[in-house]
Amino acid sequence: MRYIYYPGCSLKGTGRAYEESVLAVFRALELQFEELDDWNCCGATAYMAIDELQAFTLAARNLALAEKQFADEEEVNIIAPCSACYLVLMKAQHYIEEYTEIGDQIRSALKECHMEYEGRIRIRHPLDVFVNDIGLEKIKSLVRKPLDGLRVASYYGCQMVRPYKVFDHHYSPTTMDDLMRALGAKAVDWSLKTRCCGGSLTGTIEQVGMRLSFILLNEAQKRGANVIATSCPLCQFNLECYQGSMNRKFNGSVDLPAAYFTQLMGMAYGISNRELGLQRLFVPMTSQFSKKEGYQHVGV
Amino acid sequence: MSAFDIQENGDFRIGVFVCDCGINIAGKVNVSAVAEFAGTLPNVVVTREYKFMCSDPGQELIQNDVKEFRLNRVVVASCSPLMHEATFRRATAEAGLNQYFFQMVNIREHVSWVTENEYLATEKAKALVAAAVRRVKVHRALESKSVPVNPDVLVVGGGIAGIHAALTIANAGKKVYLVEREPTIGGHMAKFDKTFPTLDCAACILTPKMSSVKAHKNITLWTYSEIDKVDGFAGNFTVRVKRKPRYIKEEDCVGCNLCVEACIFKEGKFEDEFNVGLSKRKPIYMPFPQATPSVVLIDPETCLHFKTGKCKQKCVEVCERGAIDFNQQEEFKEINVGAIILATGFKTFDPHRISEYGYGVYPNVYTSLEIERLVNASGPTQGEVLMRDGRKPKSVAIIHCVGSRDRKTNAYCSRVCCMYSLKLAHLIKERTGAEIYNYYIDMRTPGKGYEEFYDKLLQEGVHFIRGRVAEVTNWAMVPSEEDKLIIRAEDTLIGVARRVPVDMVILSVGLEAHDDAGEVQRLFNISCSKEGWFLERHPKLAPVSTFTDGIFIAGACQGPKDIPDTVAQAGAAAAEALAMVDIGHVELEPNTANVETVMCSGCKTCISMCPFSAITFDAENWRAEFNEALCKGCGTCVVTCPTGAAQQHLYTDDEMYEEIEGVLHYV
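^ inputs. structure came back:
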C-alpha cells in the first residue's frame, strides 16, 4: 500500500523532530510514501475559530490534491502525524459528506481553481497505520535495541480520539501502550492519557495552560514514568518547554522528557540520535539511559 | 353541517362522514373541502362534516342518514381504525346494514398529524376518501365468527410482575403456566435488601409469594425454561416451551444441598450469578437459600464430569434420592393457552460503556446492583459493607443517572435510580457511618412517601451535589487524595468544579431492555419502542395490552418501573387476561381465505404452503378445497396462488385494486 504524507506546518517548524523521526521510522518499516505536492495549511486553530467554511475549504484543497496525486488509487490514504491536522482533515471530510449545503459550497470553491474532491480519501494517524496496517508483529521483529526497563507513559492527547473515535477508545485508548510494549518498554498505567495538555492556552492564559500540563507531568512522574510519549507537536511542546517555570509556580519537581512516540520507535530500531532529532529535545533523554549499559548518551 | 345534493346513480348509495376531531384533523385538513369533494364522487348521496363523529350524536347522525337517504354503504374519514373502527362498524350495524359495508379512512394519524402543509394535507385526505368510496362498493356482507377460548393463561417471566400476575389468575380459578428463564423465580427483587421508601425487607415480602406460586394447584411452574415457538391467535395459542437440562430430576430433589457440600470442589470457584459475581459458587449449586423451586442445578460449563469425564461423582454418591441425572436432555413441552402475559423485566445498564467512571478498572467502583447484594444479609458479606480490599468505606460517592438521561447512552430517565440511591445511601450510612455524596442531575421522587424519604435523607446528613460527574480517577493532586478515588464534577448550584476524594463509588445504573427483547418481540408478534421496551396498545387507555390481541405486558419489560407500579400493572394485565378467557369465546374478524372454484387450476401449490393444513385437494373436481374453520387468515395461500383463485375476505384483490385505483385516479 502507498501513502501520502501530509506534514502540516508544525512538522516543518517547531515539530521538526517529529518529522525527522516519523520519516526515519517510515524508512525503517519500508513504508511506501510520497509527500503531498503543493500542500497548504490544514485549516486548524485560528481559521477554524473564525470561519469554519474557509477552514474546511483549505482542508478540502489538500484532500483534492491528494486524490489528484494518487489518481488511480481506489482509496487514498493520507498520513497526518500532527493531531490538529489529523482532526481538521477528518472534520472537513465529515462535513463535506454529511452536510450537502457545506459540501456544495466547498465543491464549487474547488471548482473555481479546477479541482475536485471525489471522496476517495481516508485520513490516517501514523499510530493507526503502524499498529493496524503494519502490525505489532512486524514492528516487533525490527527491534534491535529493545527499550528494556524504560517506563513509558503514553499520552494520546485529545484530538486523536475525540470526537472521531476511529481506531481507539475515546477516553482510555491503548494502541500506543501496545506499541511501546512491542518495543520492549513498560507501559505505565495512568488515567490521564487523553486529558487536556493545555493546548493553545499556554500561549494565551499561561496560568491555566501551564497548570494543565503540570498535572500530566506530575502524575506521569508519580506513576514512575521515565518518559512521556506524545503524538502531537503541540502536546509535546507544552509538556517539555515549561518544566522549570512549572516547578517554580506549583512548587513541583517534574523533570521528564517528552518525546515523540516515533522517536522511541526509532531508538528501538537503532536509528541514530541525529536522524531522530533527539538533540532537539529540551529535556534530554540522556538521564533516563545513563544508568543503562549499551545506550549512547544523547548530546544536546 | 352541510348536506350536498343527493345523486341517484346505480344501486350504490354511499354516505361519507368526515370528522374534524376537534382541531386534531380540522387544524390541518380543510374538512369542508374534503366533504364537498366527496359529494362529487359517483354514488355518494350524502356527505357530512362533524366535530366528533365518534360521539353519540355523531353516531346517530350516521344512523339517521342511513335511514333517511337509504344508504347501503358507509365511509367515515377520521382517526386510525385501531381507535374507532369497532365504534363505526357497530353504528353501521345498528342502522341495519351489514357491519362490513363500512370503510374507514385514517386522515388523522396518516394525514393531519404527519403533514405540515395544509394544502397537501387536504389533497391527501381527498385522495384517501376517493379510494375508500371506490373500495366500499366491492365490500361483501360478512359475518364475524365466534370461537371458543382456551381458559388457560401463560405468564412469561417469574419476577415480581410474573409472580403477581400468575397468582392473581390462579386465585381466580384459572390454570396458569409460569415460565422463567433462570433456575429460580424471584427476578431482580429477590436480590434486593430493602425496598424504598418503607424499607420493608424485600425477601420478607417476596418469598411468601414465591412459595405460594410453587404450592398453588393452579400454577404449573417451569423454571430454567424458555419459550421456543408461538402459534395461533387470541383465545387459542399453541406454545412450545424449551426446558433446559439442569441435570437434576426436579421431582426427586428436595433441596437438601448435601450434593453441593459433597462436590469435589471444596470451595466455590466460579462466579455466582445471584451475587452478581461478588462471591463464588460450585459447579453444582442452589442459586440462593429461598430459591423456588428449591432444586439445585449443575452448570455443565464448570462441572468436572462434563469437562473431563473424570470426576468421582461424590454428588451422586450422597444423593439418597438419586436425583442427579447427567444424561438429562433438553425437553420440549407443548401447551395451549387462551392468553399470554409477558413480564420479562429488564437488565441493568453495563457501566463499562462509560469508561470515564472507571468500572472494571478501579476495584472499588461498584454498580448499584452489586451494592444491593453487599448490603443484603444473605449476600457475600452477610450484610456488612466491605470493599473488595476488605476495608470498610469511610466515604462513598453515589453517581446518579449512569446510562440514563444521556443521549450517548439512553435518553430516557430510568425512574427508579433516584429512589434506590437514597435507599442505599441510608443503608450504608446506617451501617458504616460513612460520609455519603450523592451526585444527581435532578432529584426525581414522585411517589407516595418518596419526597418524604428524600427529606429524611437530607436530615440524616447525606450530601447532595447537583451535577453530572465528569470522571472518576485515581490521580491525586494533594496528599489527602492519595489512595482514594477522586470524583470530578461541576457543582452546578454554586458554579464551581469540585474534586471529592472517596473510598467507594457506586454507579446508579439505569434500566435497559434485555438484549434479546427483539427476539421475544418477533416470537410473540408484538411491537417494541426504539429503546427495546415492549409497546403498549395505547399509552393511556390500553397500557397493558399490545397490538396483538390476547397478549398482554406487565412490569419493566414495558419501560422502567418501580415495584409498586410493576405490581399494579401485573394486576391489571391479569384482569385483562381473565376478562378475555373468562367470557369463553372470542369474536374473530372474518378474514379467512376461500377459493374461486372456476379459477382454480388444481396446481396444489397453496396446499403445501398452508401452515394450518386448512386446504385439501378435491381430486374429483380437480381443485383446492378450503376449510374456513381451520383457516387463521395468514394470507400465505393468497400470495402463492398463481391464478388469483385464492382470495381472503376483507382483503380481496378487487378491494385492494379499487382502493389503489381510487388514489391514482385522484392524483
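Residues 14-144 of chain B form a domain with the Rossmann fold fold (CATH 3.40.50). DSSP finds 18 helices and 34 strands in chain B.
thumbs up if we can close this ticket
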